[in-house]
Amino acid sequence: MKKISSIIYLSVFITLSLSISAQEKSSYKIINRIHLDGDGGWDYLTMDDAAGLLYVSHGTVVQVVDVKTSKVIATIDDTKGVHGIAIASEFGKGYISCGKDSTVVVFDIKTYKTLNRVKVNGSNPDAILYDPFSKNVFAFNGRSKNVTVIDAKSDKVTGSIPVEGKPEFAATDEKGKVYVNIEDKNKLCVINSQTLKVENSWPVAPVDEPSGLAIDNVSHRLFTVSDSHLAVIDAKTGTVIASLTIGNRVDGVAFDTGLKRAYSANGEGTMTVVGEVNGTYKVIENVTTQKGARTIAVDSKTHHIYLPTAEFREGESDKRRAMVPGTFMVLEIAPNP
Predict the structure, then answer these.
(1) Is 91 exposed, middle or buried (0-12, 13-18, 19+ CB in 10 A)?
(2) Which pLDDT tens digit goes with each residue over 297-317?
(3) Exposed/middle/buried for 321, CB within 10 Å: 0-12, 13-18, 19+?
(4) Which of 2, 117, 145, 154 is the 20 to 30 A CA-CA neighbour of 246?
(5) Cα–Cα distance between 320 and 59 in angstroms, integer?
(6) What digits encode the pLDDT tens for the residues 11-24?
(7) Are the CB atoms for 45 and 308 separated by under 8 Å?
(8) pLDDT at 1 over 50
(9) Residue 216 phi, psi (nearest 5)
């Protein structure tokens, strides 16, 4: 009996030791689940680091969350088919892409009131980006395969840029170049934000159907993702300098300028952390998140990471939007001290 007890105690000790060891190895942890009202679907979310505000697309609205209190401080209504949010702080305005009515909603970032509704010269605007270099807002129209250009000062449409396929997420180097994934062509296009011309088109293999895109404007590196793959690309030459295996069901990727790390949001329920180690990009860790958490935003001041998701009925996935009512949330992940 004593021998059996000793074996049991030893087994428990080993299990606990392994558990503690695994916890010690993890560099990140979920510190909060910010629950938001509403049962609609979601897409992108945007972090305004300077203001400490998180803009979350959700159903037909955008919910504005104060990340210090985890409270919704405003709701921007009537954003049909909302996809993305761009902030132009110098003009005191924000821009929301509305896919269902092919408009961009312009709102005041102090009062959150709608200022304007701009009709795009295309169909189904998806990703949206403000470029501080050109002072232009770029709305990427998935169905019509073009980009609507809006002057942020006047909110007038000033151009249309045809691209060779379906534009997905985009990033800016803030020096005259805007980069956008072309999902159905497995390419990355480079747009001159002043001439409004496509200057280059680069293959992104082994990434297949690229979705999320992030940029490191110090090292001039782009991070583009698809299911199971992340490619690190030289933003000046288009050369793929690293190809890494990440999780599945990925849609978004974000880059923390302070920690110099890229994070992919894998809807399977993980977040892949990528960093440069001795001059080589490597997967540092796969952090457990929650199924459905496939888009992402990062606060480069606090280094907290935000991923929206919900709970789903047994055997069903978020692709069917079969979420359990009242369970929509944003996961808040922080580096372990």
Answers:
(1) middle
(2) 999 999 999 999 999 887 655
(3) middle
(4) 145
(5) 14
(6) 433 333 333 344 45
(7) yes
(8) no
(9) -110, 105
Structure tokens at 119: 């009709």
Quickly tell me which residue has 């992108």 as its tokens. Answer: 44
Backbone torsion region of residue 144, taken as left when φ is above 0, otherwise alpha when ψ lies between -120 and 50, otherwise beta = alpha
CA 281 – CA 274 distance, rounded (Å): 7
Domains in the chain (CATH in brackets) are 31-335 (2.130.10.10)
Q: Which of the four pLDDT bands, split at 50, 70 and 90, describes residue 10? A: very low
In which band, very low, low, confident or very high, does the pLDDT at 319 lie, cut at 50, 70 and 90? low
pLDDT tens digits for range 248-276: 999 999 999 999 999 999 999 999 999 99
Q: What is the rounded CA–CA span in Å between residue 82 and residue 187? A: 25
Q: What is the pLDDT of residue 321?
A: 54
Q: Which among 206, 202, 161, 199 has a CA at the least distance from the CA of 182?
A: 202
- Look-up: residue for tokens 């993702």? 225
